[in-house]
What we know:
By secondary structure, the protein is mainly α. Helix content is 78%, strand content 0%. The protein has twelve helices and no strands. The chain is elongated. The N and C termini lie far apart (79 Å). Mean pLDDT is 89; it is low at 201-206.
Amino acid sequence: MAAERETTARRRNAEATRAAILKSARAAFVKSGYDGAGVREIAAGAGVTAMMVNRYFGSKEKLFAEVVAQTMAEPTILTRENLSAPDVARTLARGMVEVTGRAAATLDGFQIMQKSGASARAAEIGRAQIEKQHFRTLADALTGEHVAERAGLILSIAAGLQQMRQGVGLRSLTRADPEVLVALLTPVLQALLEDNSERKQGGRRRGM
């Protein structure tokens, strides 16, 4: 019984240490990006040594990949509820506008990738995680032709809006009435969400 309690305590301690490292790494990558954040800085933030960080994650690359995966496992727009909403296009449009608004905190995942853009390795890791999570979630929700291209375009619209409103601060978007942006975005997203293959086939039959 004592041995079992000791094993459980060690496991809990290991889980707590791992969580502390991830939390510190996330904050460091948000602040400085992949190249700017150092393992020693991350270790200090977690109250451990750099050797301990490498023991738990193997390398800064692997730690970065896990942090990015963690941020993408917490979707704010591509949630199951939003993708199953009666009016998916308007729901997604509203979500994109809300998360990029003046009062909205910039999402950690966006900040991490934005500040890591100069690193080819960070971009590769980010791309792999996007394709594994956000892209796959969206692609699985679409039907018809060109699913991959349509999913990629929707993700690009979301990222572009975030960059121009929160990154660049384009005034025509930051000062815009949110309802106007939602109204303008909705038909664009609807066109990408729609399965128009049956409509095209019907048009061909009528033409014949």
